[in-house]
Design a protein that fits this description.
Chain C: GO terms for molecular function: guanyl-nucleotide exchange factor activity. The structure holds 3 protein chains of 3 kinds. By secondary structure, chain B is α+β, with helices and mostly antiparallel strands. Chain B contains 4 helices and 5 strands; from the N terminus they run ββααβββαα. Chain B has a 5-stranded antiparallel beta sheet with strand order 2-1-5-4-3. In chain B, a hairpin with a 5-residue loop joins strand 1 and strand 2. Chain B is globular, with a radius of gyration of 16 Å. Chain B starts with a strand and ends with a helix. Chain C is globular. The chains are: A alpha+beta, B alpha+beta, C alpha+beta. At the A-C interface, strand 2, helix 1, helix 3 and helix 4 of A face helix 1 and helix 3 of C.
Chain lengths: 159, 167, 247
């Protein structure tokens, strides 16, 4: 099952929120680990924030050349795919995952661009709700446990 | 009925607004307006003392308390005019004078042209003027951050609105 | 040991420290990084079985469960708004050193509203029939149109470009909602309480990466005594970007 690294980056290229998880769908019943736990190896885990942050320049370029919110696949790094979404308020959502999607050697079980887009749209909804909190200011880290839970539920629903 | 002049008195009887909206009255000096306002305030107070003795009505304080609690319970004022026991109107051959009092003790006084023989009608139209005046007062005076309570009203928007509905 | 990995993103803007550990297993801690909210067998179980759990005192009635994107127009009483704004001006006035300072304070209060409302308005427009504003003129039309409408219930009255200076634009409102009942005393000079609204515009523009300074100026005309011109002055760097991208 594929693992994902999701991060929200603020307007000053500062991280607001990160989470690692793996797909809840593809787990076979025989698997001993509970679904959702990220399966990144240590060496990959280490470079994930780097890969995400290095895509910021590409995102900024795309930011002013397209008027889409969803920027789609923006970058790839040795089999790590980077998908991005940017809000009107210049907040970046970045999703990183390994492209090797073989589950029992099944290549057709590919990442679904549409569900990634849907995931981003609903994350945007959550982000706006978080922003409506008067005790939250733009570019603060999002530490709310409720937000975290909702993000993980979305991850389970779409990825 | 033509409105000659509008006075607003604070709860202590001080004149906080005076406007001769239509010509018809002789101009007084600034000091005379203050004296006139103070006199009316006094007469109003004396009248309310007298009227209790005459028909044993509930005292002024009681009626205010009742009106306030009714306002809190129902969310709406039964009758905006809290001037139950004091001086309400003076009718003469030359002018009519009407007094309106809010729950907080602000008095609106208007001086109008005389309408002999049509007491009920002129009373109603005076009430209509008071209603408008109260609305404009609540909007353009009470919601103005630069107005301090019981002080003279200088708002030009209030002035404009008052002129709009009396002319 | 995987615990020894030093994550570069672990800078903290928040007050949480490295020793703060979430009891529920939910909640991101920026001092710790992804290790703080990684999914465990326990939390995985909660997620799978949709157990209702109370993470914070407000979990049961959290905003995350509410629908904020409905198009239905929600109205509030103009009187309550005016009384609230009256107190806001009074409070700012009390703390301010002068007229200029008062305007700056009102601007600052509006700024945060602009930042939030920008995102909310875009969310409410929906992603199917909306796009991200990337050009100056388009973002101004958005502010003048749907943004204004979602805050004040109607579009602004006019949008003009300055004839003399290339980076100046004007949004004109004949009767700004917040200062409808406010008369500025003569000794307050050219103070305009719509500085609050200027702050809203500035917050929205800044947040959308259109850095600008916005000021409010009273320009009364017959019939509209509180007519206000919001002067929007974009930073020079922005004009460079615009000409590079779309020149």
């Amino acid at each position: 099952m594929s693992s994902y690294y999701f991060s929200i980056i603020g307007t000053r290229d500062n991280p607001l929120y990160e989470v690692e998880f793996s797909s809840f769908k593809s787990s076979s019943s025989s698997s001993s680990t509970p679904p959702g736990i990220s399966q990144f190896t240590d060496s990959v885990k280490e470079i994930l924030p780097f890969v995400s942050n290095s895509s910021l320049d590409l995102i900024e370029d795309a930011q002013w050349s397209t008027s889409q919110f969803n920027l789609g696949r923006i970058d790839s790094f040795y089999g790590l795919l980077v998908y991005a979404f940017i809000t009107q308020g210049n907040i970046k959502f970045i999703l990183c995952f390994e492209s090797s999607t073989t589950n029992n050697g099944n290549v057709t079980q590919k990442y679904d661009e549409n569900s990634i887009k849907q995931f981003f749209i609903e994350i945007n909804d959550l982000y706006v709700k978080c922003l409506l909190n008067p005790f939250y200011a733009v570019n603060d880290a999002i530490t709310s446990p409720d937000f975290d839970l909702k993000v993980k539920l979305l991850a389970k629903k779409y990825l | 009925m033509k409105v000659y002049s509008i006075y607003i008195l604070n709860k202590a009887g001080g004149l906080i607004y005076q406007n001769d909206v239509n010509p018809g009255l002789t101009k007084l000096t600034a000091n005379d307006y203050l004296v006139l306002a103070g006199t009316l305030h006094g007469v109003h107070a004396i009248a309310s003392k007298l009227s209790i003795n005459i028909d044993g009505m509930e005292s002024h304080q009681e009626s205010t308390a009742n009106a306030n609690s009714a306002l809190l319970v129902s969310g709406r004022s039964q009758d905006a005019n809290n001037n139950k026991s004091g001086l309400q109107s003076i009718e003469t051959d030359l002018f009519n004078l009407y007094v309106f009092q809010t729950l907080t003790g602000i008095k609106f006084i208007i001086i109008t042209s005389p309408n002999p023989g049509e007491l009920k009608k002129s009373y109603d139209s005076a009430n209509e003027v008071f209603k408008q005046l109260y609305i404009v007062y609540s909007d353009y005076v009470m919601k103005d951050p630069f107005y301090s309570l019981d002080m003279p009203i200088k708002s030009f928007l209030f002035d404009t609105k008052v002129k709009e509905f009396v002319t | 040991m995987s615990d020894d990995i030093i994550l570069p993103s672990a800078t903290s803007m928040s007050t949480l420290t490295i020793s703060d550990v979430s009891r529920t297993g939910f909640g991101y801690n920026p001092s710790v990084g992804t290790a703080s909210n990684s999914i465990t067998s326990e939390t995985s179980n909660i997620l799978l079985n949709r157990k209702t759990i109370s993470l914070t005192p407000t979990s049961a009635n959290s905003i995350y469960d509410k629908n904020v994107s409905s198009k239905k127009i929600t109205e509030i009483s103009l009187s309550s708004l005016s009384f609230l704004f009256c107190e806001i001006v009074n409070w700012s006035h009390k703390n301010s050193k002068g007229i200029q300072d008062l305007e700056t304070r009102l601007n600052g209060l509006g700024y945060q509203i602009g930042q939030r409302f920008l995102e909310l308005t875009k969310l409410r427009e929906g992603f199917k029939n909306s796009k991200r504003e990337i050009r100056i003129i388009e973002v101004l039309q958005f502010i003048h149109g749907s943004f204004w409408k979602s805050i004040f219930g109607r579009a602004a009255n006019d949008l003009e470009k300055s004839q003399d200076v290339s980076n100046e634009y004007m949004i004109i409102d004949n009767a700004p909602l917040v200062s409808r009942f406010i008369s500025i005393p003569k000794d307050y000079g050219n103070l305009n309480c719509s500085a609050f609204m200027a702050g809203i515009i500035e917050g929205a523009l800044d947040s959308a990466s259109f850095q600008a300074d916005v000021t409010a100026h009273s320009v009364p005309v017959d019939g509209y005594p509180s007519r206000t011109v919001f002067l929007i002055k974009f930073h020079e760097s922005l004009m460079v970007r615009e000409s590079l991208r779309f020149g």
